[in-house]
Amino acid sequence: MSTALISVSDKTGIVEFAKELKSLGWNIISSGGTTKILKDNSIECKEISEVTGFPEILDGRVKTLNHRIYGAILAMRSKEEHIKQLQKYEIGAIDMVVVNLYPFEETINKIPKPENKKIAQDVIENIDIGGVALLRAAAKNYKDVTVICDPINYSLVVDNLRNKSIDEELKLTLAAKAFRHTAYYDSLISIYLTYEKFPTQAAVPLKKLSGLRYGENPHQEAALYSNGIEKNKSAVISAKQLHGKELSYNNYLDLESAWRLVHEFDSPACAIIKHNNPCGCAEGRDIKDAYLKALSCDPLSAFGGIIAFNNPVKEDTAHEINKLFVECVIAPQYSKEALNILTRKKNIRLLIHEIPYKEDENIVEYRMMSYGMLAQDRDSSLLSEIKLMTERKPSKEESDALDFAWKIAKHVKSNAIVLARGRQTVGIGAGHVSRIDSLKIAVERMKDVKHMLDEKRFPLVLASDAFFPFPDVVEESSKSGVTAIIQPGGSIKDEDSIKAADERNIAMISTGMRHFKH
């Protein structure tokens, strides 16, 4: 008769599965907690200590770590010498291992990583040792042993057993899943216990949430994964989709950018993103006002874009949105009337996320390269120290607009130039290899919205994500009416730009912090 070893922390479906095994003539060996639930359900089984001749000790820390268990799992049935050794030491073969691990992930979600490095004992006790070893042993010997680490696979295995066999291909599939499972589990532990920012070796735990429609292009397959340990519930990955087609890879990138940008602001705000760059952003009296101002910055580029709001969307705003072709909208809430209006469009994707985005500090972000990966601190800061560079100080109106424009510049691909009046962008130049070209694009965009604003009340300001190596941006921007500039400073030719600003009565301040975004 075939023998299965069952030792599960998650008891989901285990009674039904064990009954199926017994009906098919299998013997069952099980650990303490699993033995109890099986026997409580009248399922005959033998406790592991009866096999090993040794009791569970150290509060259950040691129960399966025994040669009678691992010999039974690792013996290769095709090797005569292995079979002889099993017979010599009176070890019976184990043909199936059914194990899932202590709930370490659930535990650390309840107990955040302490800054003082004093790890809670409950976290330590939920580090599984024997279970991981059992899965790895069975997976290594997959040709002879079926390994199951996920209750979702119980029915598949039973169906195959009813057909009298489990083929090697399925065994390999289950073995690979077991190794992925233990690798993910160990990566959670290593990340949680590690306090080095950039350790010599690193493992990033990733859990698949869903497949995606496609990648950056339709011929590329794609999937969405979550980081298993560094979870920010305010991040867009936790948003709920209410309506529309399945999201694509690009949708998520743009939603992430829009959601992070719009939460730079406390007042009602709207950000419109296209190809991972803002084409318009504004604060307003209310969400409708913010949306119309953001849209006016570049209505042409907003076509097919992603819209994010930091306040609930109501009926009046929904009517305005429906005038434009939009890929996705994300907001903390929608009124019933707004949802009725927006869902008239079959393909628009509507997402809701009630938790405002908050940037985590001291978070390392990763970026894939060909056969490698880059790691860096998340750009979670805004500025270092504001310093006046010119003779003239910015007015109150200019300072307010500079603060707004600088927040936008942080979220624009380099080289980034942002033109703003009040709390509204009027021109954005993004991603050009020349900063002066970014300025020219921003000025061109501004032509369509200039007439909508009171120029005397709202002076034109400029934000640059990096310093000026030459005075050309200052010189050219003055021709378009820029009266104040905010930039990081630090160029060896800062004096040339300062001189150009003073000659044109432009106020210029430095932040001491660059915001390249590649």
If you had to describe this structure to a student in words, what would you say it looks like?
The protein is α/β, with parallel strands linked by helices. It has three domains: 3-193, 3-Layer(aba) Sandwich (Rossmann fold), CATH 3.40.50.1380; 208-227 and 234-352, Cytidine Deaminase, domain 2 (3-Layer(aba) Sandwich), CATH 3.40.140.20; 387-510, AICAR transformylase, duplication domain (Cytidine Deaminase, domain 2, 3-Layer(aba) Sandwich). The protein has helices at 14-23, 32-40, 48-52, 67-74, 80-88, 104-110, 121-125, 130-140, 154-162, 168-193, 249-262, 287-297, 299-302, 315-321, 336-342, 396-409, 435-446, 472-479, 494-503; strands at 3-8, 27-30, 46-47, 96-100, 146-148, 206-211, 223-227, 240-243, 269-274, 277-283, 305-309, 326-331, 349-352, 364-369, 372-377, 387-388, 417-421, 424-429, 460-464, 482-487, 507-510. The strands form five sheets. A six-stranded mixed β-sheet has the order 8-13-12-11-9-10, sandwiched between helices. The protein has a six-stranded mixed β-sheet with strand order 16-21-20-19-17-18, sandwiched between helices. A hairpin with a 2-residue loop joins strand 14 (364-369) and strand 15 (372-377). The model has no long low-confidence stretch (mean pLDDT 91).
